[in-house]
Amino acid sequence: MGGGEKLSCGVSRQVLEYVPPPVTAGLLRATTDGRAARLLAGLSPAVRAQITLAD
Fold this sequence. Notes:
Helices cover 64% and strands 0% of the residues. The protein is mostly helical.
């Protein structure tokens, strides 16, 4: 994805379900476009719990 293209929050959440939780936590911390809270809220409860622990 070049040229400043962004994934929608829905697609991003689907992808993040397959990313190791510590990596997802780092990505969410580094997000500067204000979508981190929405992305985290949209993840499954099991993944959210692992990200909270990895934080």
